[in-house]
Structure formats: C-alpha cells, structure tokens
Amino acid sequence: RKQVVSTQSTGELCLEGKTNALQPNWLHLPVGYHGRASSVVLSGTPIRRPAGQILPSPTATTPVFGASRLLDYELEMGFFVGPGNKFGETIKMEDAADQIFGMVLMNDWSSRDIQKWEYVPLGPFNGKNFGTTISPWVVTMDALAPFRLPLEPKTDPEPLPYLVEKDSYQFDIKLFAAIQGENMTKPEVVSTSNFKYMYWSPRQQLVHHSVTGCNMRPGDLFGIWYHLRHRTSRIWLHVRIVLERNKRS
What pLDDT is stored for residue 234 in this prediction? Predict the structure, then answer.
C-alpha cells in the first residue's frame, strides 16, 4: 500500500496569482491522497510511457485514447512506517518518531495529460498509478539524526493540538534532479531543493493520517512532495518539467 501525503514549504506565495493560491486547509493539515503499492519499483526499473484518455488540444472537450505526451517526474522523499498501529487506534505525536523506520528518495511519475482529464472531482487515478520509483537503500532515522535542524513552532496559523510538536525539527537533506536526454552527453541539473523547507514534518503527516483510526502497517510508504528552494520562493522547485515527446516509449 502506498500512501502519498502532499506537503508544502510555505503558504500563499507558493503559487503564482490569487487564482492559484493554496486552499485554506493547506496550512492546517497535511493534504494527501492514497496510491498503489503494486507499481512501486526500485531505481533503474524501466518505466513504460502510459496510455489513456487525453484531450488532443487545449480547446478540446472530447478525449481520445493514446500515449501520454506530458510525462512528468516529481522529486520527492518517502518514509516507511515501522511497527504501525492497530485498526481503530491512533498514533500520538509523542510516539510518532518510533513509528518511522527510515527514508528513501522517490520519483512519483505522473502523466499530466491523463491526470488533467480525469482528476476532477476525485483526484489523480491512472495519471499516477503506472509507476513510482524509489531508491534501493533505506536510510534509517538514526542515521539521519546528525542532520536534524531545529525549527520554530508553527504559529500562523497554530496547528490543532494533536499536530503540535514539542520539539520541532526537520532534516538538512540536499536534493537535486537531473535529466539526460538521448542526445545529451551528460545529465543536466534542472532543479535543486532541500528537505528542511518542508512545512509539515514526517511525524505530523503520520499522526494526521492515523487520527481517524486508520491502521498503519509495517512497510507502508508515505511520499512527500513539493520541495521548494526557500520560504519566499514563487516557483515549484521540485520541479515539474514536462517531457514532451511524440515518440512512444
């Protein structure tokens, strides 16, 4: 089972313009959605370009079936659940650190044209289910301890009591993504970021997901997305680079 939680480094400045402003809930809870575990694969596994229903032009209202022309990557990190909790019980903030085993790098492949046509009103489906790549090594939380950075408590707005961390911290993990096309001699770095800019911590994400009594199992995977350069950034730095190729993979 793959559980993907979306988080954000900052507030209203993350998106350009008032029409693209964050929804009011984003600074009150870790917004997320569920995904599939069957298509989570290790780095190096070939990803086949998906096919599905897409709109053939920006003005089209009737879909056609074909290969995705807007295949995209997302630079993310993920964490694996350790012991988990029983069905109907919750994970408390003071116990959350002991529930997280370790972290991996993640690429949550996305088909933007399939996703654009299907996602209203229930969210992504076939546009996200065809492949998620993770690194082959899991770095334990003990190994990451030296990279902890203390954070000031969130106050604007202040989280509800169940999401309050007495010892707020994030991890100083430098991230970058590079692309090497068929005619390129070496990879080109197209985005950089740092995990320390995430708004919600892994502990807060885990606690929130269990607050309804949803049971976490050992090995459940959380994907964490939207990495930004710093708190006043106006661009997506995880980055959404759209790869447009007419050639089918």
Answer: 28
